[in-house]
Specification:
The chain is an alpha+beta fold. The protein is 16% helix and 35% strand. The chain has 1 helix and 13 strands.
Length: 173
């Protein structure tokens, strides 16, 4: 084999190895956001009065752009409602994202992301409170989810079977 052919062979082998390394490493670099759900037992008594405050949920970002601009609309599961007398908020700790609370109905909490995340950090939602929609029969456990059609953080799925932002379980009051 000539020196030229050996050099080409070594060059191609190095290029293939670099390509393989990029393929193996790239998914970790784009892992996306992870969610810590706000789980709660909700008393059946809240169907009549009161509500159950939630801690969180939160979204941990790993890279710039994990939280894109647009609307984040969260849905309460069947049998549960958001307490519209609560005061939802959000903290974009070190993510660089700009996000504000927009509106609340019994079924949906809506936020507007006007500036995408610019790095890693934690987006923590606060002031969420929920209640049961009926005291009996007890509602089946259900998950708070992100609606489709808006801003979708990298690594998050939308819709009723999407990423869980909080499991609610109704218990006897």
């Amino acid at each position: 084999m000539s020196i030229t052919r050996k050099a080409i062979s070594v060059g191609l082998s190095a290029a293939m190895l670099a390509s393989l390394a990029a393929t193996v490493v790239a998914p970790a670099a784009f892992a996306g956001a992870t969610v810590t759900a706000a789980n709660a037992n909700v008393s059946a008594d809240t169907a009549v009065s009161g509500s159950q405050a939630l801690t969180g949920p939160s979204i941990d970002t790993t890279a710039s752009g994990d939280i894109p601009t647009g609307i984040l609309a969260f849905s309460a599961p069947a049998g549960y409602a958001f307490d519209t007398s609560s005061t939802p908020g959000v903290s974009a700790n070190t993510t660089g994202a700009t996000i504000v609370f927009v509106s609340e109905t019994a079924t949906t909490l809506t936020y507007q992301v006007t500036g995408a995340s610019t790095g890693s950090g934690t987006l923590t939602f606060s002031g969420w409170a929920v209640k049961a929609t009926a005291g009996t029969p007890l509602a089946a456990p259900g998950n708070i989810t992100l609606n489709a059609g808006g801003s979708v953080p990298v690594g998050v799925t939308t819709g009723a079977s999407g990423t869980n932002f909080g499991t609610l379980t109704e218990v006897a009051g």
